[in-house]
Amino acid sequence: MAEVNLSPPAMPAGKKRIAVMTSGGDSPGMSAAVRAVVRQTIASGCTAFCVYEGYQGLVDGGDMIREMKWEDVRGWISEGGTLIGTARCMAFIERAGRLTAANNMIEKGIDALVICGGDGSLTGADKFRAEWPSLMEELISTGKRKDHEVAPFRHLNIVGLVGSIDNDLSSTDATIGCYSSLQRICQSIDFIDSTAFSHQRAFVVEVMGRHCGWLALMAGVSCGADFVFIPENPPSEKWEDDMCSIVKKHREMGKRKTIVIVAEGAHDKNLNHISASQVKDLLSNKVGLDTRVTTLGHVQRGGPPCAYDRMLATLQGVEAVKAVLEATPETESPVICIVENKIVRKNLVEAIKMTKKVAEDIGRKDFAAAMKGRDAEFEEFLQAFNITTATDKGDNMLPKEKRLRVGIIHVGAPAGGMNAATRAAVAYCLTRGHTPVALHNGFPGLCRHHDDQPLGSVREISWLDAESWASKGGSEIGTNRSLPSEDFKTTAYCFEHYNIDALFVIGGFEAFTAVSELRKARDQYDAFKIPMVQLPATVSNNVPGTEYSIGSDTCLNALIDYCDAIKQSASASRRRVFVVETQGGASGYIATIAGLSIGALAVYTPEEGIHLNMLVEDIKFLKDQFAKDKGSVRSGKIILRNEKASKTYTTEVISNIIKEESGGKFDCRFAVPGHVQQGGTPSPMDRVRAVRFGVKSMQYLESYAGKSKEEIYKDPMSAAVIGIRGARVKFSPMERIENEETDWKDRRPLNEFWMNLVNVVDTLSGRPQSCREG
Ligand code: ATP
């Protein structure tokens, strides 16, 4: 027998050997996270490993812990589940199993471990980390390892990535996989909806979530459900009567269908389980509805990750490797989280403690504490859900003098979520006693005037009008690009004529410009001295004052579906590259984030432009890539070019140049998805954020009720834009944003937060810096 060298491999100082594993229930995006960790590790000059089959692989060792090369993870970004396998491993729960795992890690010379899993997996990781010094001692004292073998591994460097469909880890707004799962749920409910409507039926839909109601609540918000049952906020003791009376009221108001969503772990305030069949019986027997139960089951876990999960997994994977490389023996183990739009590192031990506390709070029936233990968004969403489904006008109504007539207008191109935001605003207005007024077809609709017709296309919106808009794409009240400056006088006249006390403007850069114009014209027109809020809604995500516009997520999902299909075609022909043209106006946001989400070879943005040397270098890079591919099944390549990246180097020209210069080694085609990018049905993320921001915007406008026109005029915050800025949702004063943060010529923010993400696209595709420098 050949001698086996059991000594750990020699480790060059500073060159880490980083392993990544997936554990617990699979979730869409886990493979994307593994790809990002492997490639960022290799790009950082370190050695990447995968531990196959979760902790079982760590306990079994040998070939279950494998070195990974760059090409090994090609195409993984768009795959569902986890390509390195996952398992529930009993052996790791025992110290003996963890001792074996530790020994295997030393054997392979692994000095850092990135674990992507749910709270159970991260609890295991935390235990492993806490025990590590004693495991090392035991390996030495039992003679399994020598002192010098263990010496380089005295500190276990662990980083957590939260991969779970449940979104149940406190400290992070979203887990890798939760939005894909939500997408699957909403798609199913949208389908059920049409049957329910046709037959005037009720459906009780059971969704996953044993201890966490995030999926149920978000599905309720994005699908406009009538009632939701979640473990953190159980209904009152008389919930049977409450639910039945809400459903009855909705029916009396003219609703033809009923959707009730039940989280798997739903219970009442005494922790008695509430089942879907129990709810069905109530709806059938007490309300007299033809009721069916649908249990969605494992479809919720499966399928390819949505755009957000791919981006989250990729950015968090990159951050995990950075955290490993920056760690010192004193650094506390982090878990990589996201707060609003910011990737942050938080303390793993604390995050697990907080998560466990929510379960304990529920067990102790302290539901207020359980709600607090979830992220801040969660409570806001619950409030938003309650507002949009509330029908009793009792305690919520404001006194008469505080009630407003709120004008709601859509401006610019349609974007996913515009209708959901309008529906939420209408529902909020009605519960508070305000009057929501639709200004149809933008400013020209408002100003339309014929001698023989009443002025303008203006109508009050009823609850039933807007009730079905939660999931609708396009714009139900009509939208138009024209600006108020085209006819200030009639606009002001109409505002007065229809007694508009507050204005809610939903749209993209035109909407931003419209609010800016109205604000500036306050000097001449008293009618504009009313509070105004813009909710950014555009596929381009180019509105100053926010890092996120509703509609941009829908666009990204439409684009990645399109690119996945193109990539498959390109892969099938083995030697083909596609240049795909994206929308986005003069902002490269969509191109860049889509590039991150599909693993594009390169993105061409208007901010950077395109020049000849860049193309020359990229063609060299392509040749090099195809040479390495050797006919791989995942060899399809995509370059994303924003529609305004260059006047000269159009998508077709670039495609022709690449083809011509390929020396016959590969083919190049181009594709223009065009308006497909506006998406059909809005994504759940756009819908839920539309609801949240719609309600917040109404509360904001309401805060001006009772103020005089002069007070409003003098207050810079009275014309504002709502947006996500880093880790916060904020209202920003229009005056400052338009003066200090807007690139008016190119219609985009002066500082675009995503610009450095182009580097991440390049790093993960292996594109050398020289390509961009040209
Ligand atoms: P999901 O959110 O899908 O349930 P999870 O990560 O919470 O995912 P679990 O089954 O709870 O899934 O945990 C996965 C694995 O993590 C377990 O099979 C076990 O190997 C390990 N693990 C969980 N809890 C512990 C613990 N307390 N000590 C050691 N290992 C643990």
Automatic annotation (TrEMBL):
GO terms of biological process kind: canonical glycolysis; fructose 1,6-bisphosphate metabolic process; fructose 6-phosphate metabolic process
Sequence segments annotated as region (N-terminal catalytic PFK domain 1): 1-390
Residues the entry annotates as binding substrate: S164, I165, D166, R201, M208, G209, R210, E264, R292, H298, V299, Q300, R301
UniProt-annotated catalytic positions: D166 (proton acceptor)
Subcellular location: Cytoplasm
Coiled-coil region(s): none
Catalysis performed (reactions): beta-D-fructose 6-phosphate + ATP = beta-D-fructose 1,6-bisphosphate + ADP + H(+)
Domain Phosphofructokinase: 17-324, 405-700
The protein's Enzyme Commission number: 2.7.1.11
Protein's UniProt keywords contain Magnesium: yes
Cofactor: Mg(2+)
GO molecular function, one term: metal ion binding
Residues bound to beta-D-fructose 2,6-bisphosphate: 481, 538-542, 576, 583-585, 643, 669, 675-678, 747
GO cellular component term, pick one: mitochondrion
Keywords: Allosteric enzyme, ATP-binding, Cytoplasm, Glycolysis, Kinase, Magnesium, Metal-binding, Nucleotide-binding, Transferase
Family matches, as PROSITE patterns: PHOSPHOFRUCTOKINASE (PS00433)
Activity control note: Allosterically activated by ADP, AMP, or fructose 2,6-bisphosphate, and allosterically inhibited by ATP or citrate.
Protein function: Catalyzes the phosphorylation of D-fructose 6-phosphate to fructose 1,6-bisphosphate by ATP, the first committing step of glycolysis.
NCBIfam families referenced in this protein's UniProt entry, alphabetically: 6PF1K_euk
Assembly notes: Homotetramer.
Family to which the UniProt record says this protein belongs: Belongs to the phosphofructokinase type A (PFKA) family. ATP-dependent PFK group I subfamily. Eukaryotic two domain clade 'E' sub-subfamily.
UniProt protein name: ATP-dependent 6-phosphofructokinase
Organism of provenance: Acrodontium crateriforme
